[in-house]
Design brief:
mainly alpha, globular, disordered N terminus
Length: 315
């Protein structure tokens, strides 16, 4: 007789059934989390989807370039708009307003006959000497005011009073008292440019954090080291703001000194062109002086960025 077949149930000692084939990738992508919430495995992230969310390496350097070119484009658009309005005004009333072409032609004629280069040399010499003296005296006296409280309290009101006096109106008296040479004209330029430098430098030095001064005193720094390492670096941005204002005032002082009595330089050319009602020369020289002033102010801003890089904040 055949023995009855024995049926065994899987127990503790029995081997589990062989695992079947792994589920497909689509089945592995979704798992059921707590409370039946379906979550997506990180493995399912497609490389194409990841690359679509990142910036292409080719377009990354274009963003800073576009940020730099945007102000230049706006400035160029404003310049073209101004030239267009000037051209329309010159065509509508050619007696009072000369067109940009006529003004440029007048400047070319003065360059060819040599009057403009000699005038620029004379005015430039006067401007540089007066402005240099204003910067040296203004920065030095402004720093001194920040360290000498008694001097600041006694001369603070005097500075603002003298700054409100129109030096241009006093130019004839100054030239009559000191003569009509280079020294008297330099004095006029100096007086017109020095006050913005003094006021801004003194204000910047006065705003030096007291913590820095206390640390310097704690380490027993000398007065020279305090001026060199604390006052000057913190005051440079304020002083350069005053210097840029002084540059504009120095141009005004130079032209005013050349207007009165001893007409010379660019001021003499402007005065002569105004007396014969030569609007092309007047407008051309005015634009030339404005361009030179803007160039000098840009140079001052570059110097400020070089010596005050610690104030640059990157977004």
């Amino acid at each position: 007789m055949r023995a009855p077949e024995q049926r065994t149930t899987p127990g503790a000692g029995s081997r589990p059934p062989a695992a079947g084939p792994p589920p497909p990738a689509a089945a592995r992508t979704r798992r059921t989390g707590p409370r039946g919430v379906r979550t997506t495995s990180p493995r399912t992230t497609s490389p194409h989807a990841a690359s679509s969310r990142t910036t292409s390496p080719r377009t990354a350097p274009l963003a800073p370039l576009a940020a730099r070119l945007r102000p230049l484009a706006i400035s160029a658009a404003g310049l073209l708009a101004g030239l267009g309005l000037w051209q329309l005004a010159g065509q509508r009333d050619p007696v009072l307003f000369a067109t940009p072409g006529r003004s440029a032609s007048a400047l070319v004629d003065m360059v060819q006959d040599g009057s403009l280069p000699s005038a620029l040399l004379s005015s430039g010499k006067l401007l540089v000497i007066g402005l240099a003296l204003a910067i040296v005296v203004g920065v030095g006296f402004g720093l001194l005011l920040s360290r000498a409280r008694l001097l600041r309290a006694s001369t603070d009101w005097l500075l603002f009073a003298l700054q409100s006096v129109p030096i241009v109106a006093l130019a004839p008296l100054i030239l009559s008292a000191f003569g009509f040479g280079l020294s008297a004209k330099t004095l006029v330029v100096f007086l017109t440019a020095v006050f913005p430098v003094v006021v801004n430098t003194a204000e910047g030095a006065h705003r030096v954090p007291t913590t820095l001064l206390e640390v310097a005193r704690t380490f027993r720094s000398s007065e020279w080291r305090i001026w060199k390492d604390v006052l000057l670096p913190h005051t440079v941005p304020y002083a350069m703001t005053g210097v840029r204002q002084g540059i504009a005032m120095a141009f005004v002082g130079t032209l005013a000194a050349e207007f009165f009595l001893n007409a010379s330089g660019v001021g003499g050319l402007l005065l002569a062109a105004g007396t014969r009602f030569d609007t092309a020369t007047v407008l051309g020289l005015t634009v030339l002086v404005s361009v030179l002033a803007v160039a000098l102010m840009g140079l001052g801003r570059a110097v400020e960025r070089h010596f005050a890089r610690w104030r640059t904040v990157k977004a």
